[in-house]
């Protein structure tokens, strides 16, 4: 393409009166012509005056385009000589044909291209992802009722802090986070969860996932083994696998994590054990004192780190909250992690970890180095919220509200199915598990329920080993208004009855 044709080519493609400014149009079109080879390397561009006259636009517009092309390396300008297209073609060595398992073929589907692009661990992570397309509604497990959050109180506290606009609250968060919040949390955890800690031991994070990720990166190496409960929270499994750990699923029974003789035997002990002792997720049992003491002693003798995920133990119905495993630890082997998301609202994204005293400085450095934490203003508001007593009163109020909704849903189950479908793990938390008959496909049931406007999670998806998986549905009740529970369960019940009938027909 020579200089005369360039003017004609541009004139034919410019959209006079379009929303896109003329400068942007000319720049985009010339860049396209260079990148596609329609303007070959070494081609001399028209002078700014000539091109402006040909296109009937202001010369300053063309000058601005040429300046931007020069700045981005598309053209080279020499005083007295003119403006020439630069040679931006890839180096021949970089594009030499060679076989590559990741080379894409023309016409590949979007899904196939995505799969081919991923690493092995990327495919494993995405293939087993548990994140749901919707995060609100009947019967989404693990989601609090955010409409009940005391937003006016929070807004008032926040406005007071913004009024002073302390510059220290608008920068990064060194030292593990806002100290007044760490002090407030340590007081709260000692009373509410029997956690033994000082403010210095608390490291503020964005939630359970980041707390786990930090602990795993600092305390384990790629290829180390990690015990996880079977079944377990999918997010914990994803974090561990994405950091290169080998997952060793340990079954749970009515007393919680149940390592058998072979796990305690001559094989090398794991580097890490991840447990939910106060309310096992997803099945809901509490780890017995005997199991707790056994796990702690095993960890002390073999140098095993224990990650205690205490995700929603504030909400118990009919009994007091169970004390933490960390409170029994005398050897400094437990890293306690928690979050305010289930108590207040998930979008808050403030979590915490309680580090053993000898690891405090290490964890502070790690969280600052890897994540460059901030959110000091939110942390300051939360500190005021806790110290003024609002957190305690909010938990007390929500425990009563969730207890009512839990009972309404249990009554709906019993009214429709009697004792045919067992309710499991309903003593605490924001969900329970509805057991299904053997052979019922809980994944198909979940999909059908979603089509009917109801969100549930399949219990089988929480198992690492398909051969061990039980069939069931996780039903969350916390974010469902009282009056919506019965009609939503009626819709779900029709799906359940249809799938159970189909399963029975397949057996016959």
From TrEMBL:
Provide the leader sequence positions.
none
Q: Which Pfam families match?
A: Aminotran_1_2, GntR
Low complexity composition bias: which ranges? 91-106
- Identify the stretch(es) annotated as Disordered: 91-112
Molecular function in Gene Ontology? DNA binding; DNA-binding transcription factor activity; pyridoxal phosphate binding; transaminase activity
Q: Which domain of life is it from?
A: Bacteria
Which SUPFAM superfamilies is this protein grouped with? PLP-dependent transferases, Winged helix' DNA-binding domain
Which InterPro entries does the entry link to? Aminotransferase_I/II_large (IPR004839), HTH_trans_reg/aminotransferase (IPR051446), PyrdxlP-dep_Trfase (IPR015424), PyrdxlP-dep_Trfase_major (IPR015421), Tscrpt_reg_HTH_GntR (IPR000524), WH-like_DNA-bd_sf (IPR036388), WH_DNA-bd_sf (IPR036390)
Provide this UniProt record's keywords sorted from A to Z.
Aminotransferase, DNA-binding, Pyridoxal phosphate, Transcription, Transcription regulation, Transferase
**SMART domains, per this entry?**
HTH_GNTR (SM00345)
- Domain HTH gntR-type: residue ranges: 20-88
Tell me its family. In the C-terminal section; belongs to the class-I pyridoxal-phosphate-dependent aminotransferase family.
- Name of this chain's protein: PLP-dependent aminotransferase family protein
Source organism of the structure: Trinickia dinghuensis
Its lineage reads: Bacteria, Pseudomonadati, Pseudomonadota, Betaproteobacteria, Burkholderiales
């Amino acid at each position: 393409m020579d200089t005369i044709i360039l003017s004609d080519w541009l004139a034919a493609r410019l959209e006079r009166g379009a929303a896109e400014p003329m400068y942007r149009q000319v720049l985009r079109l010339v860049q396209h012509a260079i990148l596609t080879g329609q303007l070959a390397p070494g081609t001399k561009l028209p002078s700014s005056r000539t091109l402006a006259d040909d296109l009937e636009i202001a010369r300053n517009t063309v000058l601005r385009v040429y300046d931007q092309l020069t700045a981005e390396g598309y053209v080279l300008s020499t005083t007295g000589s003119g403006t020439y297209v630069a040679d931006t073609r890839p180096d021949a060595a970089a594009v030499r044909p060679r076989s590559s398992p990741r080379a894409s073929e023309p016409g590949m589907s979007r899904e196939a291209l995505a799969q081919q692009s991923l690493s092995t661990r990327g495919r494993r992570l995405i293939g087993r992802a548990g994140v749901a397309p919707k995060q609100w509604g009947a019967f989404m497990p693990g989601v609090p009722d955010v409409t009940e959050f005391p937003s006016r109180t929070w807004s008032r506290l926040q406005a007071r802090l913004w009024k002073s606009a302390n510059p220290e609250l608008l920068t990064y968060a060194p030292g593990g986070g806002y100290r007044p919040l760490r002090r407030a949390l340590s007081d709260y955890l000692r009373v509410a969860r029997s956690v033994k800690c000082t403010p210095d031991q608390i490291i503020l994070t964005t939630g359970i996932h980041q707390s786990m990720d930090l602990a795993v990166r600092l305390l384990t190496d790629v290829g180390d083994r990690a015990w996880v409960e079977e079944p377990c929270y999918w997010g914990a499994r994803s974090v561990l696998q994405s950091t290169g750990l080998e997952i060793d699923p340990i079954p749970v029974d009515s007393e919680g994590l149940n390592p058998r003789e072979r796990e305690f035997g001559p094989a090398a002990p794991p580097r890490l054990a991840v447990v939910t002792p106060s309310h096992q997720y997803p099945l809901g049992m509490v780890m017995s004192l005997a199991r707790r003491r056994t796990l702690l002693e095993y960890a002390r003798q073999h140098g095993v780190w224990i990650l205690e995920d205490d995700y929603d133990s504030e909400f118990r119905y009919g009994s007091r909250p169970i004390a933490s495993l960390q409170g029994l630890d005398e050897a400094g082997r437990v890293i306690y992690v928690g979050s305010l998301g289930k108590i207040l609202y998930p979008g808050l994204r403030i979590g915490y970890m309680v580090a053993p005293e000898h690891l405090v400085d290490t964890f502070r450095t790690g969280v600052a180095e890897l994540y460059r934490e901030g959110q000091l203003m939110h942390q300051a508001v939360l500190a005021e919220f806790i110290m003024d007593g609002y957190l305690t009163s909010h938990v007390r109020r929500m425990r009563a509200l969730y207890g009512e909704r839990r009972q309404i849903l249990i009554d709906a189950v019993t009214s429709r199915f009697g004792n045919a479908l067992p309710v499991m793990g309903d003593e605490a938390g924001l969900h329970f598990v509805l057991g299904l008959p053997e052979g019922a496909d809980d994944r198909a049931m979940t999909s059908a329920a979603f089509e009917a406007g109801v969100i549930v999670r399949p219990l089988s998806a929480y198992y690492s080993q398909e051969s061990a998986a039980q069939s069931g549905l996780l039903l969350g009740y916390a974010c469902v208004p009282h009056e919506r529970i019965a009609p939503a369960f009626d819709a779900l019940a029709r799906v359940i009855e249809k799938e159970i009938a189909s399963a029975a027909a397949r057996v016959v």
